[in-house]
Design a protein that fits this description.
Layout: H1 3-15, H2 18-31, H3 36-41, H4 45-60, H5 67-81, H6 84-98, H7 101-110, H8 118-132, H9 139-147, H10 152-175
């Protein structure tokens, strides 16, 4: 962890609400760490809560998309945006959820190199097009997802996860957010 993030954690712990301190304690218990992205938001308890509420809803809430599929979207979008933080953290999640260390690396480099189902490829093609050329989205893009077995609610979730990571990637780049060292060795 960089000195900058350590200072944020020390400063944040003394100024956080009891609910946020409890949340960080739960992170330490379940993950063995507090993700640096949470520490970066810790300067403002309301912003931290807004971020975690949205993240938890999109990535852990009810959806027709599996947790692995949502993490795959995070990595594909972050690859387009060259987001060091998210490629490292969510690449580790893909490795862990899939049980395949190569998949996380392939996703980070170029998802098209991975052995994906036609459903997964359609999902990632949509998320990447939405990232690179949102003004070019057409009904045929949505129909391709329906043809691959996705519902309109699933399409909403794919778009929402892609949009969230586009926003997160830009914030991470703006503030030089660095991943926790532990992510580099997870699920290898």
């Amino acid at each position: 962890m960089t000195k900058k993030v350590v200072a944020l954690e020390l400063e944040a712990d003394s100024e956080l609400s009891e609910a946020t301190k409890a949340y960080f304690d739960k992170c330490r218990e379940k993950l063995g760490l507090v993700p640096n992205v949470l520490l970066a938001y810790a300067f403002d308890d309301r912003k931290l809560r807004a971020f975690t509420d949205m993240y938890n809803d999109l990535m852990l809430g009810d959806s027709g998309l599996s947790k692995l599929e949502r993490e795959m979207i995070a990595v594909a979008v972050s690859s387009v945006n060259h987001c060091y933080y998210c490629l490292t953290a969510h690449g580790a999640a893909v490795r862990q959820l899939s049980g395949d260390p190569r998949l996380g690396e392939q996703m980070a480099m170029n998802y098209r190199a991975a052995e994906l189902s036609s459903r997964q490829k359609a999902m990632l093609d949509f998320a990447v097009k939405l990232t690179e050329r949102p003004d070019m989205m057409e009904e045929s893009d949505r129909q391709a997802l329906r043809d691959a077995g996705f519902s309109d609610r699933d399409i909403w979730d794919i778009a929402s996860v892609a949009a969230f990571f586009n926003m997160s990637n830009r914030v991470a780049a703006a503030v030089d957010m660095r991943p926790n060292d532990a992510y580099h060795t997870m699920a290898r």
